[in-house]
Amino acid sequence: MLPARDACAAGWALSGGPLTPRILASAAAAVSAAGPAPSPAILETILRETRLEGTIARSLRRRRRLITTSTSQVTAAWDAIARDLHPGPEIRSLLASQTPPDLPDTAAAAASGILSGVYIHGRHATLTAAVRDALHAAIAEGTASALALDAARHGRLTPPAAWTAGRQNAPDQAGIPELPLLAQEWLTRILGATGRQITAMIIRAVTRGTSHGQLCAAVTSALTASGPGPAPASRAIAAYLDQAMVTAAGHAAIAFCQARGIAQARYIAGDRKPCPACQAWQDASPYPAARSPVPGADTHPYCECILLPGT
């Protein structure tokens, strides 16, 4: 019979997940608690729990990679529009008419006017489709991860088979009628965050006496999401698309629980140090699945948490 340390190693290997500090800490605690001569039942429990921890880590790694890929695709669609946005007329009007008390309002109007070009651009539908595809991919991945995590708890499927089955069972876009509206809602948030950051940038530049040409160049750079620096558009896309996809994956996990008749869900804080709110959600677990807090929706961008079906 495998000793406790080997049971941990076997469970982690079965998961196919990365070896994270969380897994190492869990394994060390399990080995310490098992004692020098653990029973077969204890060893089986250790193996199953370590496999579950490894599957959680693998789920989070898969989700991070998916978000990175989707962010690149949305960024490319955004920049195809941004290169055609010309801030010159709005900036010229701003500099000609603004007075210090009115600067915040006129700067906001200028930023809004510049970004209105996104909505009327011929590639707006392509940008919206990129956001919609990202949300759909997150829903499919959330469904697959929920199945893989449930399988890891009960040993019914190996993780690769579970992820394959989960993605095959995820609804297609036609089966999610609210998807276009969700995509437009998240795109509106991206535009709003970009506009607020550009407004602040314009106010600072005008206060410093920046010239028309310099301000136009700065705004053009701020609108380019794929540039070398953290431009406002880049930051907005990264933050809000991350939050959108984590939220979509979380709602997919709840839908999985409801479809399978799983009454409860556990909120699992991620591999990295969780924020106080996420730690509190985890400490209060489990929740009724239908009323569970949802990573992303009830937390913040770049949330590293995930929902585990069952208790």
Attribute tags:
elongated, 11 helices, single chain, mainly alpha, 311 residues, 3-stranded antiparallel sheet
Strand content: under 5%
Number of strands: 3
Fraction of residues in helix: 55-70%
Total of domains: 1
From the helix content, strand content and strand pairing, which structural class follows? mainly alpha
Shape: elongated
H/E order of the elements?
A: HHHHHHHHHHEHEE
Distance between the termini: 28 Å
Please work out how many helical segments DSSP would assign.
Answer: 11
Characterize the largest beta sheet: strand count, sense, and whether it forms a barrel.
Answer: 3 strands, antiparallel
Cross-sheet strand order for the largest sheet: 2-1-3
Q: Mean pLDDT, as a whole number?
A: 90
